[in-house]
Specification:
5% of the residues lie in helices and 45% in strands. It is mainly beta. It has 2 domains: 84 residues, Sandwich (Immunoglobulin-like), CATH 2.60.40.2340; 286 residues, Neuraminidase, CATH 2.120.10.80. Strands 3-4-8-7-6 form a 5-stranded mixed sheet, with no helix packed on it. A 4-stranded antiparallel sheet has the order 9-32-31-30, with no helix packed on it. A 4-stranded antiparallel sheet has the order 10-11-12-13, with no helix packed on it. The longest helix has 21 residues. About 10% of the residues have low confidence.
Length: 429
């Protein structure tokens, strides 16, 4: 009996042991892995990504393609494109972090004549801005598409016309043609008289009806101010009495406009969208003439510059003055100095300058504007200032025989000297 009881006890113990060994461990609860830029808060829910970087910025449509340099610390992107590229119409390819978006969107055309801000938005809604700056290739290699040719056609020879005076005429462009107004030798060379039209497509000069107005003063330099421009399909030039003469190509007639402004005397001017902008010779005043309602307003400048204005131009919705010489016509500082003319507040804002001190001859032969760019021709060197980027380029060792008279048709600058020679300078705009 005692043995049977022991057997029963051993059977119970064996059953309990078997049950404990057969019991399974509970399955662990899986954890949720984290994602880049995210964390795993209590409860296992994944947070949204905060990654918001631009990893690549390029202009694949250019030949060759151009890739921008990204400064992740400064959050800036810089790209240099060929001089022939139109930076006002470039469509970049933009690569950003996973799950992030960018505005403006990739592939959308932008105007890079000024800095463009790209904003990257992460999945979690946080943002990061990048400033993109685009410039054109500088130096000789950047403007190799410039070509200079001397035109074969010459104006008819008139014994009474004065060809010897470097300032002896007025050259302007109208309706894709050039016009030249030359002086008569009579009356001491004070009278403008002979008028010609040049057709670039035919390379031909044609004499037009004579200029009908006579000089009424004694100072040749003040016969006409440094002002000629095109408005309403007509050419305007300012006379010694500060009023305008106009030429209408439709009727081939010169007329007295019957109005003018005292501001025009000995001023450097630039015309844009119905308004004539200018500064006085010593930069003490600026003025704006509204040609539509025939009104003018003068703006005294707070600081008078020490040099004469070499040229004034309006570009990129701003007025600029480039100081090239002192009153004797020499670049005393060795630099071409650019100033934005903030005429509303009476301030000159210094922009970039170009050191021309290494040039053998530093006088500026002539200047011309094409779009936002000003061209300066200095005895074998062409300097180009871009108002949109505030940068200079240089083309050296160019042979040209142009003079102080220039006019622009499209992308071509025409210049004529006192020896009746006309050259054409094809720019890469």
């Amino acid at each position: 009996m005692k043995n049977q009881f022991k057997v029963l006890i051993w059977c119970i113990l064996a059953g309990i042991s078997f049950y404990a060994c057969d019991k399974k461990e509970p399955t662990p609860t899986p954890t949720t892995p984290t994602t880049p830029g995210g964390t795993t808060p209590p409860g296992g829910t994944t947070s949204k990504s905060s990654a918001k970087a631009i990893s690549k910025f390029s202009f694949a449509g250019l030949s060759p393609a151009v890739e921008g340099t990204i400064d992740e610390t400064a959050k800036t992107i810089k790209a240099t494109v060929p001089a022939t590229a139109d930076i006002t119409k470039l469509a970049p390819s933009v690569t950003v972090s996973a799950k992030a978006t960018v505005s403006p969107a990739t592939g959308v055309t932008q105007d890079f004549s000024k800095d463009v801000t790209y904003t990257v938005t992460a999945e979690d809604g946080t943002v990061q801005a990048y400033k993109v700056s685009v410039s054109k290739t500088g130096g000789t290699s950047g403007v190799t598409t410039i070509t200079i040719t001397e035109k074969k056609a010459t104006m008819p020879t008139i014994s009474d016309m004065d060809y010897s005076n470097a300032w002896g005429g007025i050259l302007f462009a109208l309706n894709s043609k050039l016009y030249y107004l030359g002086r008569s030798r009579s009356n001491g060379g004070l009278d403008f008289k002979y008028f010609f039209e040049y057709d670039p497509s035919a390379d031909k000069w044609t004499q037009k009806e004579d200029f009908p107005f006579k000089h009424n003063g004694t100072n040749t330099s003040e016969n006409y101010a440094n002002t000629s421009f095109i408005h309403g399909g007509k050419a305007f030039i300012a006379n010694a009495n500060h009023s305008f003469f106009t030429y209408d190509p439709a009727t081939n007639k010169w007329t007295d406009a019957g109005f003018g402004f005292s501001s025009l005397s000995n001023d450097w001017t630039s015309y844009s969208e119905g308004k004539l902008y200018g500064v006085t010779g010593l930069l003490s005043n600026a003025f704006v003439v509204d040609m539509t309602d025939k009104t003018a307003r003068n703006y005294p400048m707070k600081v008078r510059q020490r040099f004469n204005a070499g040229t004034t131009f309006y570009a990129n919705k701003k007025l600029y003055s480039v100081v090239t010489t002192d009153i004797n016509g020499v670049i005393q500082t060795g630099k071409l100095e650019v100033y934005e003319v903030d005429y509303v507040n009476g301030n000159y804002i210094a922009k970039s300058s170009y050191d021309a001190s290494a040039f053998t001859a530093r006088n500026v032969n002539f200047t011309a504007q094409v779009g936002n760019r000003m061209y300066f021709f200095l005895n074998g060197n062409i300097l180009i200032y871009d108002a949109a980027t505030d940068k200079w380029e240089r083309v050296e060792k160019q042979t040209f025989g142009g003079g102080k008279l220039t006019a622009t048709i499209g992308k071509t600058i025409y210049s004529m000297n006192e020896y009746n020679k006309l050259i054409a300078i094809q720019t890469p705009e």
